[in-house]
């Protein structure tokens, strides 16, 4: 019963979250920084990480990459939202990181999503801990870090620019989600018109999350209320009209 409960909780998560890969084999796009032999990939694989800023448009894989790092590293990985956290939260976290390093000899990786929402005082609070190696800071932002991240913090971080995903990348992600029996819709009888998925891939403008949401909406319209999406239902077909309704022009 517990396994079934856990499975249902997992499938209640948005498709975009369920489809995040655990390794590089499942990561699509961003070959310019993650192809075999690239410095960032080698650092992740060797667990020799350094402070960095992941800069890229929405849905380009910043959070997905951070979660992949969390899956690979032996360090304590702590996600942190710059939207909801305040300076008191920052200090509490830093105190815990100091204790962790002192008594467990364990490094701490701090992933700050939307780091551009932190003001100068909040960003400055991280600086001593970054300088002395108490934390490894990974910040994610859609804004140019040259303008949104304090110069001292930026100078101690490596900036990696994630590019907008190509339509062919989005198509690969969507087709995989439709076929994936564990995390996607592979247990459903889904067919689709190529033009339908191509339409979604085009209108999402490189935003994988947007594309996943559109397919999830298209599929959900066929499912009875209250039914888990993994439970076998009737045939589902995603045609161009459905795709057009599922995703709107930005």
UniProtKB/TrEMBL annotation:
GO molecular function: ATP binding; ATP hydrolysis activity; enzyme activator activity; single-stranded DNA helicase activity
GO biological process terms on file: DNA synthesis involved in DNA repair; DNA-templated DNA replication
InterPro entries recorded: AAA+_ATPase, AAA_assoc_2, AAA_ATPase_RarA/MGS1/WRNIP1, ATPase_AAA_core, P-loop_NTPase
SMART domains assigned: AAA
Alphabetical list of Pfam families matching this protein: AAA (PF00004), AAA_assoc_2 (PF16193)
Limits of the AAA+ ATPase domain: 48-169
CDD domains: AAA, HLD_clamp_RarA
PANTHER family, sorted: ATPASE WRNIP1, WERNER HELICASE-INTERACTING PROTEIN 1 FAMILY MEMBER
Family to which the UniProt record says this protein belongs: Belongs to the AAA ATPase family. RarA/MGS1/WRNIP1 subfamily.
Protein name as annotated: AAA+ ATPase domain-containing protein
Species name: Candidatus Berkelbacteria bacterium CG_4_8_14_3_um_filter_42_13
Record lineage: Bacteria, Candidatus Berkelbacteria
């Amino acid at each position: 019963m517990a396994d079934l409960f856990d499975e249902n909780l997992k499938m209640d998560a948005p498709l975009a979250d369920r489809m995040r890969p655990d390794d590089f084999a499942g990561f699509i796009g961003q070959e310019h920084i993650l192809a075999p032999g690239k410095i960032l990939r080698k650092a992740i694989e060797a667990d020799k990480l350094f402070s960095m800023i992941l800069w890229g448009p929405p849905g380009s894989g910043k959070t997905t990459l951070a979660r992949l790092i969390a899956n690979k590293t032996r360090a304590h990985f702590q996600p942190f939202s710059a939207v909801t956290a305040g300076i008191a939260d920052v200090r509490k976290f830093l105190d815990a990181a100091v204790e962790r390093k002192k008594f467990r000899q364990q490094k701490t990786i701090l992933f700050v999503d939307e780091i551009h929402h932190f003001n100068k005082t909040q960003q400055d609070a991280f600086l001593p801990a970054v300088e002395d190696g108490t934390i490894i800071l990974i910040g994610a932002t859609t804004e140019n870090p040259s303008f949104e991240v304090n110069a001292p913090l930026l100078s101690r971080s490596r900036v990696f620019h994630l590019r907008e995903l190509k339509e062919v990348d989005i198509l690969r992600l969507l087709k995989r989600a439709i076929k994936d029996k564990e995390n996607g819709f592979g247990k459903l009888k889904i067919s689709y018109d190529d033009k339908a998925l191509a339409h979604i891939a085009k209108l999402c403008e490189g935003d994988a999350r947007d594309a996943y949401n559109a397919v999830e909406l298209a599929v959900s319209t066929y499912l009875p209320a209250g039914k888990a999406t993994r439970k076998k239902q009737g045939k589902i077909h995603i045609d161009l009209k459905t795709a057009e309704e599922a995703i709107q022009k930005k």
